[in-house]
Design a protein that fits this description.
By secondary structure, this protein is α+β, with helices and mostly antiparallel strands. It has a single domain, classed as Gcn5-related N-acetyltransferase (GNAT) (Aminopeptidase), CATH 3.40.630.30. Helices cover about 30% and strands about 35% of the residues. A 7-stranded mixed beta sheet has the order 1-2-3-4-5-7-6, sandwiched between helices. A hairpin with a 2-residue loop joins strand 2 and strand 3. Helix 1 packs across helix 2. The longest helix is centred in the first third of the chain and has 16 residues. The chain is globular. The chain starts with 10 loop residues before the first strand and ends in a 6-residue tail after the last helix. It binds coenzyme A. Coenzyme A binds next to strand 4, helix 3 and helix 4.
Length: about 170
């Protein structure tokens, strides 16, 4: 049996385009060593200016330690990216970011949240399933790994049915 890990206390704030450099640095610390994936400050500045895009940043003290980036349009939203600094993973920060993302979606009347994940990202797949996401599709060979190999993308979705069903006209 494993001992319970302490849940990290974080503050979650919403970032605007001016914080693109903070987000680029954090994204690199989360992904670059593992996947080689990098998003430049310029790329992220452009993404953060797109209508409906929101970035939620978790801070431990003053230090940025995790983020969730999502795009909402009408009653659907897409989780564009989520990451927690490696040293802070498995302390509940990802779960807190997803709760904040869900609250953000509820404020905007979003009924369904989509995401795509590499099929070999077992940890993230398990994280999403634990939150209630289910697989709804698959894109064959969608991702290219740094070694050149291809990997499927799994599309998952979470329906916020109970939050809206009581207001649905009969
Ligand atoms: C996926 C990711 C965002 C999850 O963030 P996280 O902060 O580690 O998530 P949490 O701590 O909320 O949950 C992770 C696990 O820790 C466990 N956990 C969290 N707090 C715990 C606690 N206090 N005691 C015991 N277990 C705990 C959760 O049950 C969960 O278990 P699981 O791995 O079986 O699902 C993070 O692992 C990450 O950044 N990965 C690299 C980037 C990535 O893959 N992003 C997704 C791309 S699609």
């Amino acid at each position: 049996m494993s001992a319970a890990r302490p849940r990290a206390r974080v503050r979650i704030e919403t970032l605007g385009p001016a914080a693109a450099a903070v987000l680029a640095a954090l994204h690199e610390r989360v992904f670059a060593a593992d996947t080689g994936e990098r998003w430049s400050t310029g790329d992220l500045y452009a993404i953060l200016r797109v209508p409906g895009v929101a970035c939620l940043l978790a801070r431990a003290g003053d230090a940025p330690c995790g983020y969730a980036l999502l795009r909402c349009a009408a009653d659907e939203a897409e989780l564009l990216s989520i990451g927690v600094e490696p040293a802070f993973q498995s302390h509940g920060i990802g779960g807190q970011l997803m709760a904040a993302a869900r609250a953000h979606c509820a404020r905007l009347g979003v009924a369904r949240l989509f995401l795509e994940v590499r099929e070999e990202n077992i940890r993230a797949c398990r994280f999403y399933r634990r939150l209630g996401f289910v697989e709804v599709g698959r894109r064959r060979d969608y991702y290219r790994r740094s070694c050149g190999a291809r990997e499927d993308a799994i599309t998952m979705s979470l329906v916020f049915a109970s939050e809206y069903s009581s207001t649905t006209p009969q």
